[in-house]
Structure formats: structure tokens, C-alpha cells
Design goal:
32% strand; 6-stranded mixed beta sheet; 35% helix
Length: 144
């Protein structure tokens, strides 16, 4: 009877290990232990591309904490403001002078030195200057 119980335990243990392996439990546990939250978020949501968590986090860390910044992401797989959830604070209003543009440098039409017209989804949003840029991600401020 003891041998039968032992066999059941071994079978259950093997089944559990197979399920854990097939669901990448060990890799996920390693990633959770090795990387901090910020590194894991960049790994999943990207630094500059896709949702661009890294760039958005960098900008929100240096900007006014009492205002949300509008985020325009021109990835056709997303809505125009899909990355906002990364930095949106419900108690704050939007900063009307600043915008983060993700995945579309073609939306910026150069007028003169550090003055660009922002045309997003065939609609002109005004004139802006570039405050910060990383690859295809831009932090823009309304041009006075």
C-alpha cells in the first residue's frame, strides 16, 4: 500500500513539474528575482517603440508631477492614446503645452530651426519644439 502511495506522489510531482515547465514558471521566477520592476517593465513594454515605457517614465520623472502629459502613439495596432495608462494620474489634469510622440517621426514637419508642425493622423495639432528625443520618441512643447 505504501508503494502505491509513493508512486502516486511521484506521478503527481512529475505532472506538476511538467505543467510548471510548460507555463515557463522557472523562467518567470528567475526574471522576477533577477530584475527590478523598472527593468521588467522596459523588457515587456519597450524603451522606445511599441508602448515605450522607458521613454515615458523618463519624461514623467523630470516633468511636473501635478500634470498629465498627452501621449500620441502612432502604432496602427493601438489606439492613439494607448500608452497613457503608463503614466496617467486620475487626479491630475493634462498639460496643454506638452506632448509625448511615440513611434512616428513622420508626424513632425520641420518649419525652421527647432520649430516643427505636428500633424497626427492627418490633423494639425500646432507648432512644437523638441525638448527631448530618443530614436523615434519625442517630448514636445508647444511653440510660443
Amino acid at each position: 500500500m505504501k508503494i502505491l502511495t509513493n508512486k502516486k506522489s511521484i506521478i503527481l510531482l512529475l505532472l506538476l513539474l511538467i505543467i510548471m515547465h510548460s507555463n515557463n514558471f522557472f523562467l518567470d521566477l528567475y526574471t522576477l528575482l533577477k530584475f527590478n520592476t523598472h527593468q521588467r517593465m522596459i523588457k515587456v513594454y519597450g524603451d522606445c517603440g511599441e508602448e515605450s515605457y522607458g521613454f515615458i517614465k523618463k519624461i514623467t520623472d523630470i516633468s511636473d508631477k501635478n500634470l498629465n502629459i498627452k501621449i500620441l502613439n502612432d502604432n496602427p495596432n493601438f489606439s492613439d492614446n494607448n500608452s497613457s495608462w503608463l503614466a496617467y494620474k486620475t487626479i491630475n489634469s493634462y498639460d496643454n503645452k506638452k506632448i509625448i510622440l511615440i513611434n512616428n517621426k513622420d508626424s513632425l514637419k520641420k518649419i525652421k530651426e527647432n520649430k516643427y508642425e505636428l500633424i497626427f493622423k492627418k490633423s494639425s495639432l500646432g507648432f512644437y519644439k523638441i525638448l527631448d528625443q530618443k530614436q523615434n520618441c519625442f517630448y514636445l512643447e508647444k511653440y510660443d
